[in-house]
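Help wanted!
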Amino acid sequence: MKGVRALALVAVLLSWAVVTYGNARLEVVNPVLLPTPTDVAKVFADSVRDGTLVRHILTSLVRVAEGFGIAAVLAVGLGLLAAMCGPLRLMLEPVIEFVRPIPPLAFLPMFLVWFGLGEASKVAFIAYTTFFPMFVGIAASVLRVDVMLLRAAASLGAQRVDLIRRVVLPAAFPGIIVALRVGFGLALFVIVGAEFMGADAGLGHLIMEGRTFFNPAQIVMGALVLGLLGSLVNALLVAAERRALRWRTAQSA
Amino acid sequence: MKIRVQGVARSFRVEGREAPALLPIDLDVAAREVICLLGPSGCGKSTLLNIVAGFLQPTAGRVLVDDAPVTGPGADRGVVFQEYVLFPWLTVQGNVEFGLVLKGLAAGERRDIARRYLELVGLGPHAEKYPVQLSGGMKQRVAIARALANSPSIILMDEPFGALDAQTREVLQEELSRIQRVEHKTILFVTHSIREAVYLADRVVVLTKAPGRIKDVFAIKLPEVRDRFATEFTRYESEITRVVKEEVAQVHQ
Ligand SMILES: Nc1ncnc2c1ncn2[C@@H]1O[C@H](COP(=O)(O)OP(=O)(O)O)[C@@H](O)[C@H]1O
Ligand SMILES: [Mg+2]
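Answered by r_m:
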């Protein structure tokens, strides 16, 4: 399996190289439009050397972390509350069903109007975008907690707070982790859009700059860095999830 | 009296009308007594047990434990379920310590108590395993240790051995009988095995077909350590079988 995956990646990179180097030699289209791996590596090396890449990455990551962090705390709190309080759930359901299908980017200009061009608008936009799917996922996983586990705990003396802390949270944990992972992925996804509009730093800004100064190699480099960051973060989250959920996969000794 | 069941009845709303599940039951259980509840399936055995456990409210009557009315589940009444209901994210040891954590016992003390009860059910070497790694019989031993470690004076068991194979079932009956000779709990035990009831009970309470009420009560005057092949034992067995069969036959009419 590993071999097949690696092979597929190599094939993609190889096709990119063949097409772009081929074009550079034959000049079918202007070679600037189809940056080769060498072009991209050069832009990458330059921006690493002068420190701009690190600055852009950090700027984007801080925005993602803040927006996602705010949304995660709210989603866990409200998700628990909604799952455990029937009337609240009944009230929230239609609202969520109404808001959810609106593509988040549709509201981006609204956030710029409300929060201006600074950090607040990006952070708020990411929080807004990631909140709904996380909230829905978390509430659903809390609702799925087996009532028998609650009975077992209650007859061992668990009070309301114990039930939430020692039964509901750990039982819903796998679902909560998945929801958080989805939310984080989404945050990385939409930060680019947020930074396209009125930002002076961040990976989205870096990409937009590539357009403004007609530097396609920089666009490709920014996209690749985003992809790498995304897979890195996902791999970290999956590893953390594995560790936390050892009890599910423990093998008979 | 340890437990007084006074006129306890319960009905459920089914398709818009109240359907009785349990007709008024009166039953006094002395401290250290083992009562087995027998009856055709659907006659309300679990309903009665769940009312004593505090998981369900009766529609009439009340349950007194040590002269205080039952209002909800509590650590004074340990429960053992047919489906084990262990906390899958906790180790065997963690499961047995659950109630002790709630009581605020120090880690060392919890460990000692848990180890003692795990030894008692023969699971000493498996303390660090997770529930997924255990067989059904082992899981039920953990559930019994978990209930006992919390030192309730009452243990409620709803067909605890119903999901186990015949051999494991008999072994666990013997273990429960041995443990009871040391622990002296007051036990309410639901089963549909007449043999199991005669093996374990001081009194066997036979319920009628649904909606259940008490049809007959048999005091089992056999030695503490019972022999399933003794003539006295088989006489109780056939006597109770006859009474139970009358009810089961009516169910199938
Ligand atoms: N939550 C419920 N809602 C509606 N009917 C129920 C509910 N729980 C039990 N019943 C009904 O009550 C009757 C007794 O059920 P139960 O106590 O589980 O029987 P037993 O344990 O003796 O097999 C059955 O007819 C069952 O369908
Ligand atoms: Mg039942």
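OP: Thanks! One thing I noticed: Residues 160-196 of chain A form the longest helix (37 residues).
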